[in-house]
Amino acid sequence: MTPTIRSFRPADAEAATAALRDGRPYLVTTPEAVAWQVVAQPHLRMLVAETGGRIAGTARYGAYPDSDSPGHGFARLHVVPGARGRGTGSALLRAVEAELAADGVRHLHCWADDEPAAHAFAAARGYTRGRVGYFARRDLAAPLPAVPAVPPGTALCTAADFLDDPRPLYLVDVEGTQDEPGDVALADQAYDSWLAEIWQRPDFDRTLTSVVVADGGPVAFSAAQTDGRGRYWSSFTTTRAAYRGRGLARLAKADSLHRARAAGFTEAFTHNDGGNAPMLAVNAWLGYERCAAEWKYTRDLPGRPAPAGPA
């Protein structure tokens, strides 16, 4: 049956979330977050593939909004396991490529699950494999390492302590983002955009986001998202450059996991670029175990056809 490709609608949130989770137990998200992202992030678009009245696949895509070099875009496609091999992924990808090419995107960056069929799918469509990312799981019922001692001159708190003025956390975030491994150089995200896309996420858990404070302000944090089903996602952990090498990321991440377990969460998940050795080491110390991988694929899209000349 030929899939119907159409734009995501808010009424699709429950079914689209179920499709995103299907075959990927490490994905921590909620229907509210899926619907909210499409509304709150102007650069993010979403297509769904319907077969027999059911959502069989999704595509989230757009142009990088903060890229220093124009023409870069991203796409994440997922087809539910029971619907693969029937043209759903191909139809979604064609639609995404056509929209992004029309918008001026020339370099498309995608991620593919670490499965033979996904690698073959990307290669057959002209995509080149690049860096790897790892998902990891931590059973929060198992004993956790003790939270490291808080160094003199520093203190622990949470993002909930910054409700009146989250800008100090924004400054830590944008500095850390500049050092994230990746292939696209990004300019600093504007504060208003950060508030809308990060701080106001419906699944962002401020009480579980641990913050290290020193010299009068935040210098490190470990951000948490939760899904209301006992699952916790470590979305970003970072330290300001001047304070690195002191174990503050480890301190923040350990404190956040302890808070999560005390709050009744049973599973923790995270994702790291394969080249991020310091954070991979922190996660290993915390007891995370690798549970899946995904690979970056890129392709140059054809340019927009030139307008026809006068007859």
Helix content: 25-40%
Task: State the helix count.
Answer: 8
CATH uppermost class of the largest domain: Alpha Beta
Major sheet: arrangement of strands? 1-2-3-4-5-12-6-11-10-9-8-7
Query: At CATH's second level, what is the architecture of the largest domain?
Result: 3-Layer(aba) Sandwich
Largest sheet at a glance? 12 strands, mixed
Strand content: 25-35%
Structural class: alpha+beta
Compute the average pLDDT.
93
CATH topology of the largest domain: Aminopeptidase
Q: Which shape, going by the Cα principal axes?
A: globular
Q: Write the H/E string, N to C.
A: EHHEEEHEHEEHHEEEHEHE
Low-confidence stretches: 305-311
Distance between the termini: 43 Å
Number of domains: 2
Q: Count every beta strand, where a strand is a DSSP E run of 2 or more residues.
A: 12
**CATH homologous superfamily grouping of the largest domain:** Gcn5-related N-acetyltransferase (GNAT)
Q: What does the radius of gyration come to?
A: 20 Å
